Amino acid sequence: MAKDPSRVSEGDLVIPALEALTENKPNGLSTAELIPILRDALKPSGRDLEISPLRGDDYFSEKVRNLKSHNKLEKLGVATYDGERYHITDKGERYAQKVQGARESYARQGFNKTSVTRSVTPEKDCVFVEEGQSQEVAKSIVIRSKKLREYAIKHYSKADGKIECSGCGFEGSTVYGEGGKGLIEIHHLKPISSSGETKEDLRKAVKKVKPLCPNCHRMVHRKAGEVMDIATLKALIGN
């Protein structure tokens, strides 16, 4: 059965849990204290808010308790449990710092916090950011993101090297001559992460980006806190 994308998974809890533990060093946090913090971060809905017959509490709270039942944080090496409270490890703190810059970058692009939280996990710690959004992110993320941009340009270019905007159809050389060929930016349709950096990972990642001319790229990000979808953009310009 396919996973319901509207439901919170156990893996979705990890990053916000680490952020909360970082903010609560050295005292740590109990499971009871984590539940409202993670509820606020992930905004569960639907079936996650239904009451579980096993505990008399909702399914979301049950999933947070399962972090301990399944020793999720301990197995990842990102936190320890002293019998009452979780404490972040050096590895967990390094990881939280590593992805924090990427999460802030995604927020600047307009992606909502929930979609970001569900995309960046320890199992998928190879994150990518858009060009121009590399402030305060790890150098490895910047290098990886440039690789994705280069791969995307090759993927979307025609045999003659021309590449058209997915919004308005603009192609640089028609206006600026040969020097305008390749005048394009790569837009991320959603936060992108992968479990590795192989060509196969790039092939999967490139499906989540589209080439846009500078004007269209500014337009989809024009409203703070939102990302306009390509279909809406095309409707606005009559394409």
Automatic annotation (TrEMBL):
One of its GO terms (molecular function) is endonuclease activity. Keywords: Endonuclease, Hydrolase, Nuclease. The keyword Nuclease applies. It comes from the Bacteria. CDD domains: HNHc (cd00085). InterPro entries: DUF7097, HNH_nuc. This is Putative restriction endonuclease.
